[in-house]
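From the shared-data thread, chain only:
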Amino acid sequence: MNEQQKKKISKFLSLVLRHKPEVINLTLDENGWTSVDELLTKSKRDVHQGLTFEELDEIVETNDKKRFVFNEDKTRIRANQGHSIDIDLALKPQQPPEFLYHGTAESNIDSILEKGIEKRNRQHVHLSQDKETATKVGMRHGKPVILSIKTTEMSEDGILFYLSENNVWLTDFVDAKYILK
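Structure, as tokens:
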């Protein structure tokens, strides 16, 4: 598969595993898992997205953000984070490093510095462990700005953090008082 095909399939998987499984009438359990066979069968009904197991396996293995994961025997699949639907990823609270980073567009800065970072239609706010990843995230939305988040201070104030399987830090909200520009 070429990069354009991989990107197209990855976007489709994000849609049905993170946001709208009903597009192909896919069944997700309470933890976001679905049968690989069901996904493959139902994706074939969508003329543009018929998938083979080999293609799916390649996407899971090579996706630079590790958005998707199989179970041990590769019979089930789910998205690692980023859901806008109600999914319990069964993540355990973790102690974050002293600082994490949030990449955003320059156009969002005034609002963030006033209101904080909201999860909006997602289940969590996403934070990066390094500035390079945060920059890539911010670039998707315009001229990037990287915000440093005082996560140790947040944690000491009782705010919980979770680490997804693909090493994205998650929390419910980042109050503006914890943000350094």
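The longest helix spans residues 3-19.
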